[in-house]
Amino acid sequence: MSTVVAQSLHAFGLRSHVANNIFFFDEQIIIFPSGNYCVKYNMDQKWQKFIPGSDKSQAMLALSISPNRRYLAISELVQEKPLITIYELSSIPCRKRKILNNFEFPVQRFTCMAFSPDSKYLLTQTSPPESNLVYWLWEKQKVMAIVKTDTQNNTVYQVSFSPQDNTQVCVTGNGIFKLLRFAEGTLKQTNFQRGEPQNYLAHTWVSDDKIVVGTDTGRLFLFESGDQRWETSIMVKESTNELKNLEMMQESESLIEFPTLSSPVPSFEQILETDSHTQQSMPQVFAIAAYSKGFACSAGPGRVLLFEKMEDKDFYHESREIRIPVDPQSNDPSQSDKQDILCLCFSPSEETLLVSTSKNQLYSITMSLTEISKASLSQQRGRASEKEVCMGRKELGQRSWLFYGGEHSHSLSSTGEPAHFEYLMYPLHSASITGLATCIRKPLIATCSLDRSIRIWNYESNTLELYKEYQEEAYTISLHPSGHFIVVGFADKLRLMNLLIDDIRSFKEYSIRGCKECAFSNGGHLFAAVNGNVIHLFTTTSLENITNLKGHTGKIRSIAWNADDSKLISCGTDGAVYEWNLSTGKRETECVIKSCSYNCVTVSPDSKIIFAVGSDHTLKEIADSSVLREIPAFDVVYTAIVISHSGRMIFVGTSVGTIRAMKYPLPLPKEFNDYQAHGGPITKMLLTFDDQFLLTVSEDGCLFTWKVFDKDGRGIKREREVGFAEEVLVTKTDMEEKAQVMLELKTRVEELKMENEYQLRLKDMNYSEKIKELTDKFIQEMESLKTKNQVLRTEKEKQDVFHREHMDDLLDKQTRELQDLECCNNQKLLLEYEKYQELQLKSQRMQEEYEKQLRDNDETKSQALEELTEFYEAKLQEKTGLLEEAQEDVRQQLREFEETKKQIEEDEDREIQDIKTKYEKKLRDEKESNLRLKGETGIMRKKFSSLQKEIEERANDIESLKGEQMKLQGVIKSLEKDILSLKREIQERDETIQDKEKRIYDLKKKNQELEKFKFVLDYKIKELKKQIEPRENEIKVMKEQIQEMESELERFFKQNTQLELNITELWQKLRATDQEMRRERQKERDLEALVKRFKTDLHNCVAYIQEARSLKEKVRGLFEKYVQRADMVEIAGLNTDLQLEYSRQREHLERNLATLKKKVVKESELHRTDYVRIMQENVSLIKEINELRRELKLTRSQVYDLEAALKPTKKFQQQEVPETGPSEVAHRIAPTMRLNEQEETGRIIEMQRLEIQRLRDQIQEQEQVPGFHPISGVRLPSLVKRVHSLAKVDAEVPHK
Predict the structure, then answer these.
(1) Parallel, antiparallel, or unpaired for β 673-676 and 81-88?
(2) pLDDT per residue over 1152-1200, tens digit each?
(3) Which residues contact 496 (CB under 8 A, 6 or more apart)?
(4) Separation between Cα atoms, residue 352 and residue 627, nearest integer Å
(5) What count of other Cβ atoms lies within 10 Å of the Cβ of residue 399?
(6) What is the Cα 895 distance to its own chain's centre?
(7) Beta strands across the sheet bearing 121-126
(8) DSSP structure class, residue 725
(9) Less CB within 10 Å around the terminal CB: N or C of the chain?
């Protein structure tokens, strides 16, 4: 066998035509078909594992996973024969459990399948014209029942089991909706179709006996036990916010934005065939999937609706719409989301919903997002309904889409936008891949497809780097060795493109239509493009066509460069393989076999041997214009070939999608490894530059990467390794735009910083004031709490005294009770001791009596035994005598019997002869009847065998039920233990509850006492409030004054702004009048010059007044000069002197204006500094005023204390020295007396008002300067704050 091994590494693609093509294995792993594999993909860790299809498989038709997720069934066609393979998913790697390939009934293919709830049975449906439904016991490969579902060759789309019943089956198709039950070895229909037959596309079980079915006309039916219970219809209207979504997606900077058990679906081609006559506007329900709250269904292109069950009803209402997002990279973004959703699938926890579409795409959405959006939608609906009631039930706007049907209609207003799916991995190809290329400097793969798209993949990270769609189909692609450029052959032109960081941009086009092959040279300095039967060579430096290679008579199918780019090899449909010398542009070698149409060609690394594959089922080894060897392909056509850069291995692709790995030199026939890869012919194959990875693409739209090993499992490496480059191309305009955006953002950040700093300062000032207020409040509260605390302490002391007295009383009572109890107990003990002695005497007497009775019983027992032995010995002697007599009688009877026997034998011989003749006749009759009975016994044996099988099954069921019974008994025991423990807990908790109730009773008593204290405190609070009311009235008066001052300030600001606007308008009018005056003056000068010239010319004409003819000519000349060409006169009037004067004046005015602007800027900066200085001075003055007020307050409190201390001394002095006059007393007290508090505060407020007025006058004077505007960033402290602070100080001053 070959020493080369290829292992599948990653698959980029999906086969959407496979029925039931996506489902969850667990919460993170999904399974979907790609190529000829089923792929297990982990959505979190991004790894893939592969389940290979069968050998020589032609097509994968349907998938099904068991409910316990242990088994996977795959329906395939292998060599035109149907095959069902069941894999065990739990084993690693997945192994084949059973293969169903021997069928006793006619079958062409199996179109859909389903596992039973217990995973023991499998249901399969065959294609028309047979249309058989087969019920399998798949582990024994046994057909339990078979029934024909349709006789009119209609297509069946889906079959399924009831979620809880193995015997209940549902089948839907074109005009088919059948419920069947398996009983007694047959499938019997249990429902009857009523009404017109519909084209039922999909169904799902929402409960044990309820099924939701969807049709191709957008209708949904709910059936219960075969009877219709509910019906509704879906109608699609274009969403109004699609264009908005498209614009939002186009604004994205990146080229493409990847944000960071389903119901089986019929083949899309089948439905298109059956539904070609249906209306395009009606949404087709291709897929339905049930979940715990209801079900989800596809509702037309790119749209899924979620339905939830209504409370207390068996009906469903639409709860949410989910759409496929618009793709901005599509050639027609408005139609990019119009994809038919073919399959729906919920994760086991119902957290994620997956869908697959007709364009081979996979989308997902987390259900929690739909719940959040649904909650916001319900809030919007609630607000809209309130608004609707207030507005008199008016229209609130157009409905974005409407869902209605029968008696029940559902609508969603335009305010509730639908949720959107996201790509599960990345956008995939949706048609045959025609081109494949790779490069040296980067781990990139370039592909192009008939879906009109170009995609750049990364085979190291297994991601999509770039993607773009075009108007024309792309046939071929080649990637420059540097990885920065591609050349693509479109249907209309050949384009050379740059691979930018986020775009694919064309920079050169060539008029080569329908180019099917192109390739960069290994050095990247040249590239070749095929146009029919001509090869065009271009240089990548000047982008010019340097030569054309002509010689093929048919279309060229493949080209290949040799290692040093000196030669080019080509092959075509004409059976020719040519080797071209590029220096001369001529053929060096040629090999023509007209019977073979070549598909692909390659050359060995030493450029000596050419390998070509074509339609003649062989691989040809060509050297020096002759075929050295032909290796047969064994009934397949080779479509692609590639040789490694080391020259040690060859890979060949076939028309059936397989890959063959061979070693080089080429081995004997059939020495190769065959790998099932794709589901269609392989179109292109490549090896990466380091020979580590094999890349293959096919007509099935899938791209596969393969890891290449040798036989021992070691990777095959090149002699030298090249590190991958990380550089990318970026255009200058993009860089400039991003730099501009960065500058704008920086300026914005600086502005925001300034604003935030200013806001923080203001907040600090506000918070400092609030903190002061709060501290005052808290000090007052603390004082009140201290008083309360003292009251509570006194109460506590009283309570302690009361409790001590109470405890003393209780202790006295307890001692008394103890003494009484001890006396009572001593008397009881004496009585009990006396009773004990009496009972002890009774027990001794009873014991003596029982001993006497025992002795009597022993004596009577011995006497009875002696009498019985004597009686039975006498009987024994009698019986022996009778036995001897009986033996003698037997001997006599034997003698008589022998004599009678002889006589009877003689009589019997005669009778036997007579009977023999009779029974011979009877035997003939019995044989005839026996033949009849044999047929009957055969029938009975079959019945008996079927009954035995049923008995075995029933016995198995009984055993399983016994096991379940044992489990349930164990559960019951554990539950009984739990009940006992819970009873104990209940008892404990009852005890704790009693304790807590006692505590609650005590606390209630305390609460009543506290309420009494509360009543006293409330009375005190009311008295304090009465004292506070006059002060609050004063504060209100001051606040009204502050509001009046604020209104004055606002009025002044409005007047200032109005005056500024008036000044600007007057300046504009003045400039306009100046310009008009200049124009009028210029016109006046022009007219004066014209009049002067006219006068001189007229004076010259007067000289010819005597000569009529010459006078006539001169007058005519004047007329032509000044009358007929007036416009020319005006233009000529603007002589050069005036223009010079005008330009000089203009320059002078511009200079003046520039100097004035500079002056204004300087003055504004000076004023700004003045404003800042004034503001700082003002703040410092306010601080000083506040400090002085604090000192004043302290001194007043000191004076008050001193006066209080001096009052008794004054009285004493007055008594001792009564003769001293009042003047002396006044003289002593005079130093401590000061101005009245109200007069002092009034004087301070008056001074502040005068200062504010002075500052306002200064501001008005500066604003009157022309061109001056106040600076917005600097603001004076508000007058309101000052007045507030003054009012606060006044409120703090204590009234004596």
Answers:
(1) unpaired
(2) 888 888 888 888 888 888 878 888 888 888 888 888 888 888 888 887 7
(3) 485, 486, 487, 506, 507, 508, 509, 510, 543
(4) 59
(5) 14
(6) 108
(7) 110-115, 121-126, 132-137, 142-148
(8) P
(9) C
What's the number of CA atoms in the CB half-sphere (13 Å) around residue 706?
25
Q: How far is CA 526 from CA 60, 530, 543, in A?
A: 43, 14, 9
pLDDT in tens, 382-440: 554 444 434 443 333 333 332 323 333 333 333 357 888 999 988 999 999 999 999 98
Cα–Cα distance, 136 to 698 (Å, whole number): 35
DSSP letter string, 42-73: ETTT--EEEEE--TTEEEEEEEEE-TTS-EEE
Contact 15, 22 (CB under 8 A): no
Structure tokens at 323: 């759409």
Residue 949, token pair as written in the block: 């099988």
319, 297 in Cβ contact below 8 A?
Answer: no
Q: Quick one: which of 602, 561, 389 has its CA closest to 478?
A: 561
d(CA 1289, CA 1294) in angstroms, rounded, equals 10
Whether 475 and 557 have beta carbons less than 8 Å apart is answered as no
In the 8-state DSSP scheme, what is residue 661? Answer: E
571: helix, strand or coil = strand
Candidates 593, 544, 553, 549; CA nearest to 569 is 549
- The residue among 329, 222, 221, 237 whose CA lies nearest residue 283 is 237
Q: Which long-range contacts (CB under 8 A, 24 or more apart) does 824-831 make?
A: none
Instruction: For 819-877, write each residue's pLDDT tens digit.
Output: 888 888 888 888 888 888 888 888 888 888 888 888 887 787 777 777 887 888 778 88
The span from the CA of 27 to the CA of 350, in Å, is 9
Question: 572: pLDDT confidence band, cut at 50, 70 and 90?
Answer: very high
- Give SS3 for 246: helix
Burial class (CB in 10 A: 0-12, 13-18, 19+), 800: exposed
Query: Which of 464, 641, 687, 432 is closest to 12 using CA atoms?
Result: 464
Written as one string, the DSSP assignment of 1056-1098 is: HHHHHHHHHHHHHHHHHHHHHHHHHHHHHHHHHHHHHHHHHHH
The rounded distance, in Å, linking the Cα atoms of 862 and 361 is 106
| Three-state secondary structure of 554-570 | CCEEEEEECCCCCEEEE
Q: Is the peptide bond before 93 cis (omega within 30 degrees of 0)?
A: yes
Are 627 and 621 a contacting pair, CB within 8 Å? yes
Q: Residue 163 and residue 208: Cα distance in Å, rounded?
A: 6
Q: Are the C-beta atoms of residues 654 and 667 closer than 8 Å to each other?
A: no
**CA 977, 978, 982, 985: dihedral to nearest 10 degrees?**
80
Task: List the structure tokens of 718.
Answer: 């090149």
347 DSSP 8-state letter: -
Q: 202 near 265, Cβ under 8 Å?
A: yes
Predicted pLDDT of residue 714: 56
Terminal CA-CA length for the chain: 117
362-366 and 71-78 beta bridge pairing: unpaired
Which pTM does this prediction carry?
A: 0.56
Report residue 1283's pLDDT band, with 50, 70 and 90 as the boundaries.
very low
The sheet that has 682-687: what strands, in order across it? 5-12, 703-709, 693-698, 682-687
Q: Which residues contact 1089 (CB under 8 A, 6 or more apart)?
A: 1133, 1135
Please write the tens of the pLDDT for every residue from 134-177.
Answer: 999 988 888 999 998 888 888 899 999 999 888 899 999 988 89
* pLDDT tens digits along 691-747: 889 999 999 999 999 998 876 555 555 544 567 878 888 888 888 888 999 999 999
**Beta partners for residue 404, in sequence order:** 233, 409
Pairwise CA distance, residues 618 & 629, whole Å: 10
SS3 688: coil
pLDDT, tens digit, 9 for 90 and up, residues 270-311: 444 444 444 446 788 999 999 988 999 998 888 899 999 888
Say how far apart CA 590 and CA 610 lie, in whole Å.
11
Query: For residues 1049 and 335, what is the distance between their CA atoms, to the nearest angstrom?
Result: 61
